[in-house]
Amino acid sequence: MKREPFRMNTIPPFKRIPALLFGTAVVAVVSGAFCLPRPALAQTPAAPPSSAATDTNAELAALKKEIELLKGKVPDQSHAMKDVAYHFTNLWFAGQKANWPLAKFYLDETRSHLKWAVRIIPVRKVKGGELELKPLLDGLDQSVFTALQKTIDTKDAAEFPTAYQHALDGCYSCHAAAEKPFLRLHIPEQPEVRIIDFNPAE
After folding, report:
1. Backbone phi and psi for residue 108, each to the nearest 5 degrees, phi listed first
2. pTM value?
3. Of 60, 96, 114, 151, which sees the most CB atoms within 10 A?
4. Is residue 7 helix, strand or coil?
5. Quick count: other Cβ atoms within 10 Å of Cβ 167?
6. Looking at the domain assignment, is residue 162 inside a domain?
7. Residue 193 within a domain
């Protein structure tokens, strides 16, 4: 028995056309599905700053402005040192009159205003570097000013002039260290105030 040769396509050409058209349509539809433009993602608008953030920014701006205003009102160190000279000068005359409560008042004010002066300018520029003023003041306060305080507390009129002069010398050492040796000090000749009665109360 004779076999028929193998044929690749046994379907007649006129019957293959609908199948080819169908296959082409399927491929086109599937391909088109992947090529269709996708809808753009909605852009979420940036949220406006909250009222709390706006208030904070306004407060910070106001605070900075106030700080700058206060900086312009702060006195300089020379103003504080003028007060030191005022109180320390009057201290001499209170001690000379043996008015010990008044002497204590002026010594306390002297110490307080020296601390204020150091807070205004804690570090001074000098040749070769910087000079920290607080250690200098602490040294004076714990030595010559403490000794002067003792003469007032014990009402030692005989020792008071010596203690006062030692305090002047200590202050001048600070002036020299700050490269201001021209600020020489001596025993005052008259009080800084005329309205205060330096005589002790009866």
Report:
1. -60, -40
2. 0.68
3. 114
4. coil
5. 24
6. yes
7. no
